[in-house]
Amino acid sequence: MIASTTDIWVAVNFNVILFFITHSKCAHNCHFFNEQRIIPIIRLSSIQFLMMGFSAIPYSFLARLDGFKKLSLIDLISTMP
């Protein structure tokens, strides 16, 4: 079953919320582990949540258009080193 537009925006909003939680709480987590050098690393890696959320939109639209061959090629190329 192909995701509806509402499902797409729920996924985007969920990833944006995860970004803000990860970004805002990283100083607290680093203080807990007594390692302040990883604050910029965690903040930088939290940007991945934003990219994952917004990549869901074109991915879902392509799936709706029955572009499964294109999707499989994109997935294959993106996983190659």
Description:
With 81 residues, this protein is mainly α. Helix content is 80%, strand content 0%.
SS element count, helices: 4
Return Rg in Å: 17 Å
Residue share in β-strands: under 5%
Number of strands: 0
Main beta-sheet annotation = none
Name the structural class: mainly alpha
Which overall shape is indicated by the principal axes computed on the Cα atoms? Answer: elongated
Instruction: Report the end-to-end length measured between terminal Cα atoms.
Output: 31 Å
**Considering DSSP H and I runs of 4 or more, what fraction of the residues is helical?**
over 70%
Average pLDDT number:
81
Unreliable residue stretches:
none
Structural topology:
Layout: H1 5-32, H2 39-45, H3 47-64, H4 68-79
Helix pairs in contact: 1-2, 1-3
Summarize the structure.
This protein is an all-alpha fold and 81 residues long. 80% of the residues lie in helices and 0% in strands. The protein has one domain.
Top keywords for this entry?
single chain; 81 residues; mainly alpha; 80% helix; elongated
